[in-house]
Amino acid sequence: MQPRDLLVDGAHGNRIHCLEWSREGVPLVLVHGFGNEAHIWDDFAPLVAPHYRVIAIDQRGHGDSSHDPELRYDYDFLVADLEAVTSALGMERMVLVGHSLGGRTSMLFSGKHPQRMAGLVIVDSAPEFDARGTTRIRQEAEARGDGSLASVAEYQRVLAHNFPAGRPDALARMARHELRQRADGRFERKLDPKFMAGRRPESEAEALARERETAKRLWEALARISCPTLVVRGAASDVMSPEVADRMVDDVLAKGTLAVVPQAAHSVMTDNPDGFNRAVCAFVLGE
Asked: Is 3 within 8 Å of 43 (Cβ atoms)?
């Protein structure tokens, strides 16, 4: 099964690239995390495509979607794209599956539009992130650099270092789809190198205050979500703590369920695709 490429109008004049896996059934929309793109779901999407209308999107600044010239990359802009894309595709009621950055986008969208939600899957994402994981991700992004690479294989070696639990076939696919070839034959990442530079310079205290305000908004969004919600955590995640995952499911979500996937860190779907697929299919397909 191969998806069809779509370009859909997002917010602010951006064009959002989507992979359309199927056209019938309740929409199921897949939203990737920071630095990834829509093909991160390639192991999972074919399993649910016979049962849902499955669309995987590239968030702005990622994959084959537009880079925003005004660096509008905060969560509200990502939510605006999701609103625009689902509206353009005629998706009124849906299931959202979001990982990391995409999980937070999905939480905010779902809290803003609870009546449109048939279900929600939050993959290793939370209102509060563990600083160990966010520091690691930032350092890895810096290590990947903004420069060019001689080959896809060179980038795959970088990914293997950053995702030590990742399956080789998943890492090879990530390397292939996260790069574009330049006119000079070298390769560069599709991710907008300025994605993290959209905010004005801020002190450590200002950054902490901003993150506390973001966490508050996300907790409030979760409290407004009434649909069945699956929270997926990688057992070895350094981004999503067990305590925060338990709070989401036990204290805040109206219909929350927790699945902990073994032999997986933050990138659950690439570290243990089979475990991820079992957990999420059990939820969305009732298996």
From this structure: no
Pick from 107, 97, 33: which is nearest to 267 by CA? 33
Helix (H, G, I), strand (E, B) or coil at 181: strand
What phi, psi does 40 have (nearest 5°)?
Answer: -60, -20
Tokens of 187: 């390769």
pLDDT in tens, 132-189: 888 887 777 666 555 789 999 999 999 998 888 889 999 999 999 999 999 999 999 9
Structure tokens at 94: 């849906």
Taking alpha carbons only, the member of 230, 4, 217 closest to residue 96 is 230
Longest dimension (CA), the chain: 54
Burial readout 52-84 (b: 16 or more C-beta within 10 A, e: otherwise): bbbbbbbbbbbbbbbbbeebbbebebbbbbbbb
**Beta strands, E only, 208-281:** 229-234, 256-261
Burial class (CB in 10 A: 0-12, 13-18, 19+), 27: buried
Residue with tokens 């005629």: 90
* Region 4-134+215-284: CATH code: 3.40.50.1820
Which tokens is 98 given?
């979001």
Enter the pTM of the model.
0.94
